[in-house]
Specification:
Length: 312
């Protein structure tokens, strides 16, 4: 059995009031990251678009002004913080890539204060109060056959599904709506990810019935626990709390182990720093008992490249 390795995660769950300026939300997150580091967290994760309220509830051209380049002011603040605290930070940002091209982007920052990974959200929703297709360009799939050092090894580009080799674990960054797609988790795990991060902004419409609210929240938990089981990895979901316009975000940030068990979970309505110790040796142990990756019939999955298999 592999020797025991572990990583201590810190998940930052907080509110972003609609009238709070970016600087206030960033300062709150910085304080919570310091708290997480003080509790021994080695890799600290923010919620989705953590510097402001969840702006895609409406389509408003002026809200493109909230975007910033990466590297940019927010990522620079976090790079300096990671270096000061000697931790790794994964953060979710509204990125301006070029005039008229914007992304919902996660970055990974190492303890030296350098950005070592960037992921641009691949699956973009378009539902009432989640009008993300208006704002976000989908991430680009990495070009096949890209090589490093002439050895023929495929190296994912800065977009598409990839992994980051951090100090304590190999990680994969995905974002919110990606949570509902098994392909995203599988392709990231196949590249060696041991921990999948899902920064999130998900909640209830204020007019929905409570039983429907609970059904949606449970489905959200189950699908991510399923990714942990199917791939034999840890999954960390980081959500916000509080009411913003017509949405009440349900918090409940959690970490699941490779068997799908929730090993740490935050409340549904409070700001919290959630700490979780992840024993990475459980990946080997779990995959030996549930060898799903071994038993995949890769020769039979060609149909997955089609939208539907209805003969049209």
């Amino acid at each position: 059995m592999s020797e025991k390795r572990s990583i201590k995660l810190g998940l930052i769950q907080h509110a972003c009031p609609v009238d709070a300026p970016r600087e206030q939300n960033l300062a709150k997150a910085v304080d919570m990251i310091r708290d997480a580091a003080g509790q021994g967290a080695q890799l600290i994760a923010t919620q989705e678009l953590f510097t402001g309220s969840y702006f895609p509830q409406v389509e408003d051209d002026a809200r493109f002004d909230l975007a910033e380049p990466v590297p940019g002011p927010t990522s620079q603040t976090l790079c300096e913080l990671a270096k000061e605290l000697n931790v790794e930070i994964t953060a979710s940002l509204f990125e301006k890539r070029a005039p008229g091209v914007y992304h919902n982007t996660s970055v990974m920052i190492d303890p030296a204060g350098s950005i070592i990974g960037r992921y641009r959200k691949m699956h973009i929703p378009d539902d009432p109060r989640f009008y993300e297709k208006y704002y976000f360009t989908p991430g680009d799939a990495p070009a096949p056959g890209r090589e490093s050092n002439g050895n023929g090894k495929h190296v994912p580009g800065p977009n598409g599904f990839g992994v980051q080799h951090t100090r304590h674990a190999t990680t994969g960054m995905l974002v919110c709506w990606d949570q509902w797609f098994p392909e995203a988790a599988r392709l990231t795990a196949m590249q060696g990810a041991e921990v999948l991060f899902y920064p999130t902004a998900i909640g209830w419409h204020t007019e929905e019935a409570d039983d429907e609210n609970q059904r949606q929240r449970e489905a959200w938990r189950v699908i991510q626990r399923s990714h942990a089981i199917a791939n034999g990895v840890f999954v960390a979901a980081i959500n916000r709390v509080g009411t913003e316009d017509d949405l009440t975000f349900w918090g409940s940030s959690f970490v699941a182990d490779p068997g799908g068990q929730v090993i740490a979970e935050a409340s549904a309505d409070k700001e919290e720093v959630l700490i979780a110790e992840c024993d990475l040796s459980l990946i080997e142990k779990t995959r030996r008992g549930w060898p799903f990756l071994r038993d995949r019939r890769v020769d039979a999955y060609g149909g997955l490249l089609q939208r539907m298999l209805d003969g049209v």
